[in-house]
Design brief:
The protein is an alpha/beta fold. The protein has 2 domains: 218 residues, Rossmann fold, CATH 3.40.50; 110 residues, no CATH class. 30% of the residues lie in helices and 19% in strands. The strands form 3 sheets. Strands 3-2-1-4-5-7-6 form a 7-stranded mixed sheet, sandwiched between helices. A 4-stranded antiparallel sheet has the order 11-10-12-13, with no helix packed on it. α1 crosses α11 and α3 packs parallel to α6. The chain is globular.
Length: 360
């Protein structure tokens, strides 16, 4: 019996892409090296090969992969890190050119990199050129977009339709203004980004009758929508009622004054121009990162308590009870580093039909 082609997920993480696929009726096989992350995936029911993506051979996979997904580690390119990847960009571009020509120079380039992790961003092209999947979806921080554009150029030469760009998760239904670079490629249909489902402030109906609702807010997804009355008290003292837009498990009900304060400060004035240190609960959150365990809920100017693991998961569109494993720090890092499942589903929506046709 012939085994149907698989969807391969490189640097698979806790299952953001996998959950997006599951919502579309598909499954993937992930390659992931972190034992705690592998335990999370196993508990969530996602198939995983524990291995180093950069060292894993592609030859045994030839003819067996219909779709390729990858979110290379972003620490060396992230604004929250030291950005050693910026120094290593020329080497990354050189290796992409070499792979396109059929030469694997990764070992030599890795030894010359300021941070060897920078070179992980070339791995998707290595797998793509060796395996020739029908479709490809890549995600990274916006700083990696030039490398994705270079990768797309190489894929176009191999017969793929490609699209590269930056998507804002809030435009696709998340209560978070998370901006990430994507590369979408297909050998069987035009590669297209997902259409927005929401817009900042909402939009009025146009000539075609289309209308977009406003961005979803933290209050929308964490519970206690505006105007809901919550009673707190006990049988001795009685209770008190108040309107709230805060999380359903918030300490107090100082409604619309609740803010989420980031634990990550601005590194420069340039960052400050595009990032906000606090967001009111009636807005989407800022980008949830691996340092989300340092985020605080603020009421009347005073820090009340930390963002909980469940709240961080929900803001990333994971279920509140998703079975994250490992230390508390590791669990927050897994949440922050993951592709939000809702965003993954939106991106894959235009690619999955091709995978279904191949599997059929």
């Amino acid at each position: 019996m012939t085994t149907p082609p698989q969807i391969l997920d490189l640097f698979a993480g806790p299952g953001g892409w996998s959950e997006g696929l599951r919502a579309l009726g598909l499954r993937d096989v992930g390659i992931e090296i972190d034992p705690a992350v592998c335990a999370t995936r196993a508990a969530a029911g996602h198939t995983t090969i524990r291995a180093d993506v950069a060292a894993y051979p592609t030859t045994p996979l030839r003819g067996k992969v219909s779709g390729l997904i990858a979110s290379p580690p972003c620490q060396t390119f992230s604004a929250a890190g030291l950005r050693a990847g910026n120094t290593d960009l020329p080497l990354c571009h050189q290796v992409l050119d070499d792979l396109t020509r059929g030469h694997d120079t990764r070992d030599t380039a890795r030894a010359a990199c300021s941070d060897p992790r920078s070179l992980l961003v070339v791995e998707p092209l290595r797998y793509a050129l060796d395996l020739r999947p029908d479709w490809i979806a890549l995600e990274e921080v916006p700083a990696v977009l030039p490398l994705f554009e270079h990768t797309a150029w190489s894929l176009a030469g191999a017969g793929y339709s490609t699209w590269t760009g930056v998507l804002n998760a809030a435009d696709l239904g998340l209560a978070q203004t998370r901006r990430r670079a994507f590369l979408i490629a297909s050998r069987t249909r035009p590669a297209l980004p997902p259409e927005p489902t929401h817009a900042e402030g909402g939009t009025s109906a146009d000539l075609f009758g289309d209308e977009l609702p406003p961005w979803r807010t933290m209050g929308d997804v964490l519970g206690c929508p505006p105007g809901q009355v919550v009673t707190r008290g006990n049988h001795t003292t009685g209770g008190s009622s108040f309107p709230t837009t805060g999380p359903s498990w918030a300490i107090t009900g100082r409604a619309r004054s609740w803010k989420l304060r980031s634990g990550q400060g601005w590194k420069s004035n340039a960052d400050r121009s595009t990032s906000r240190f606090e967001r009111v609960i009636s807005e989407p959150s800022f980008t949830i990162t691996g340092t989300a365990n340092r985020c605080k809920w603020v009421g009347n100017g005073a820090e009340e308590r930390n963002l909980t693991l469940a709240e961080a998961a929900i803001l990333q569109s994971f279920p509140a009870d998703y079975p994250f494993h490992g230390s508390r720090t590791s669990q927050f890092q897994q949440i922050g580093n993951a592709v939000p499942p809702l965003l993954a589903r939106a991106v894959l929506g235009n690619l999955v039909p091709a995978a279904l046709e191949v599997a059929a």
